Amino acid sequence: MVTIEKLKGNFASRAGKLYRASFEEWERIPFFALRARSASKEVDLLAFCENGEFCGFACLTLNDKAAYIQYLAVEESMRGRGLGGEMLDALVNHYEGKSVALDIHAVRPGTDGSKLRAHHRKLYTEHEYKASGYGYRDGGVVYEILVHGEKLERTDYMKLINKLAFGLTQISVRKMDELK
Fold this sequence. Notes:
By secondary structure, the protein is an alpha+beta fold. Helices cover 31% and strands 32% of the residues. Strands 1-2-3-4-5-7-6-8 form an 8-stranded mixed beta sheet, with helices on both faces.
């Protein structure tokens, strides 16, 4: 069973390495900046553990209605065991009473990586994440927003996504059919 705790100590170092290995450089905010932002009430940086052993991390932005998963990764040596799904379920329980949202690369059949993207989307839908009807484009990539719980307004998603950007950039959330 996966448990959640605030990211600190040795787990922070391991999460930093996992973060750099799991996300493309253009997708990442410097890890020290994530750690600094997690001192606020608007950002959570969490470690996932299985039997006391670090198995992954998540970074989420928060408001009174929702938690938005900005980054989620499972330790490479522990993948394929269902831990990603357990982490998703643990986050829903951790933020009880709030919607939990995330974004994924939109599935575009016939494009590079479409099978992997479809696999990822299936994982989320198996854990009761549903299409919000919204998404955005960043760096030429179209992202679809999925949500567990109540759907939010377009502006709520936009505010949650933009919380990590330090005001340097602004993502514009739109209806998915406008992004295709």
